[in-house]
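REQUEST
  id: r-88c1
  op: predict_structure
  target: Transketolase
  payload:
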Amino acid sequence: MTTQQTDKIMRTVFVDTVSAALDEDPRIAVVTADISAGAFAPARERHPDRVINVGIREQAMIGVAGGLALTGLRPVVHSYTPFLVERPFEQLKLDLGHQDVGAVLASIGGSYDDPVWGRTHQAPGDVALLDTLPGWTVHVPGHPDEVEPLLRAALAGSGRVYLRLSARENGSALPTGEFTLVRKGSRGVVLAVGPMLDGVLAATAGLDVSVLYASTVRPFDHAGLRAAVAGATPEVVLVEPYLAGTSAHQVSETLADVPHRLRSLGVSRDREVRAYGTATDHDAVHGLDPAGLAVAIRDFFH
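RESPONSE
  id: r-88c1
  status: 200
  body:
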């Protein structure tokens, strides 16, 4: 994974796209809890009734979004990952899920994008936590150019969508939606999620394996994985930028009738890193840097 390789970053694309959508679609409303509230100041001047900052009240932020959705609006809610998913989880469950109303949640910070802020701003379990609730679509773009098409589709819809933005990115954008076959091989399949792709491609150089790319993980593209496995040995390595094994049950469901082997790589479930450092340092600790990925993947396919 690399950091901000282009002149665009995902959060900037997000703010620009939502600000434009506020001008175009009277259903769109934005709810923040101080984080990035300033980025929406110009939009707030144009639409003071549909750009709401609740202050440092994350549970209220989701409750307000649920109320807006009940009136027919399409709320967009934005904050750091732990303040968007973990702290107000009960409100996600009740004010959105139990009420069966939709919203677009867009997080920043990822698993540990900004380790300078410490553990309070880290949430590698976000997608796994949302996975306990039904009806969520989850997007994990790997490049700023993937953000707008995913976000535009989410804004036009009515469901519950989680858009996991990151400061980490691949060198180039790929089509969004179904899984994309990036490299064809016969030994097995490596499924790279979002910004993990470049590291996976480096780690698998010279290996006879297929590499699949996913920017959308819920719903899971069962047909895409089955098609890739059909032309290869039924061995799968799942590489995710969040909690290791988050989508392991989806892989197992896809291949329920096919004897297979699975290795899940991601942020460790067995340890909490209590140091600050850089995001690259954290990658190395969790074996998610290209060198660590190469060791794990090559050992699996040995």
